[in-house]
Design brief:
This protein is of the alpha/beta class. The chain has helices at residues 22-33, 40-48, 52-59, 61-77, 94-103, 113-120, 127-130, 136-154, 166-180; strands at residues 11-15, 37-39, 83-85, 104-110, 157-160, 206-207.
């Protein structure tokens, strides 16, 4: 499917693995597009009054995902179009994927596990990485494989997040937004209400910048 057919002024949701640069790229995109920036994890922390790592440690991942869903619903319902950096696992719930696609344009920032590992170091503050057996990179590779189908189902477009300069990635995302909101653009089957949208048959996101598969 193509990144087309999204109503102008819709939210822009950035999804992808931890270390993909969603927050950094999101802030740059917000400045470029003239929209407010929202960090979904920060919203969760504000609602819970605790850091994400503490929520995971004391209440478990299920409790965090519930809070994440509440925060997503709140942001998606806002009439003010924003650039939203989502947590890496927000796409795991089918209801969240449907909400993302209905409320705006979903761009998947994709990068190989090796690149993500270089950025994340020892994974401090990342509950799913800190105690992972075998090290950070293998853990990231496992998570990426487990989540790939969900990212692909949720996304309208894929942008290569491996360039070291986040401005390059942000420019590619902004280009995807402009293409999606271009007057007369039509969804290639994956937009809200289309065959790949909620209630439809689904479809694969089309990379904004194609690159060979590099998943470990």
């Amino acid at each position: 499917m193509t990144a087309r057919g999204v109503a102008p002024g819709s939210h822009l949701f950035l999804v992808g693995m931890m270390g993909a640069g969603k927050t950094t790229v999101g802030r740059l995109c917000a400045a470029e597009l003239g929209r407010p920036f929202v960090d979904l994890d920060a919203r969760v922390e504000a609602r819970a009054g605790r850091p994400v790592a503490e929520i995971f440690a004391h209440d478990g991942e299920a409790a965090f995902r519930r809070l994440e869903g509440e925060a997503l619903a709140e942001v998606a319902a806002s009439p003010v179009a924003a650039v939203v950096a989502c947590g890496g696992g927000v796409v795991l719930d089918p209801a969240h994927r449907a909400r993302l696609r209905t409320a705006g344009l979903v761009v998947w920032l994709d990068a190989p596990a090796g690149v993500l590992a270089e950025r994340l170091g020892a994974g401090e503050g990342r509950p799913l990485l800190e105690s992972a057996p075998g090290g950070v990179e293998p853990a990231l590779a496992r998570l990426a494989r487990a989540r790939e189908a969900a990212y692909r189902e949720a996304a309208h477009a894929v942008v290569d997040a491996s360039p070291p300069d986040p401005a390059v990635v942000a420019a590619a995302v902004a280009a995807a937004v402009r293409e999606a909101e271009r007057p007369g653009a039509t969804d290639g089957g994956g937009g809200p209400g289309g065959p790949g949208g909620p209630g439809g048959a689904g479809g694969d996101a089309e990379p904004a910048h194609r690159r060979p598969a590099t998943r470990p």
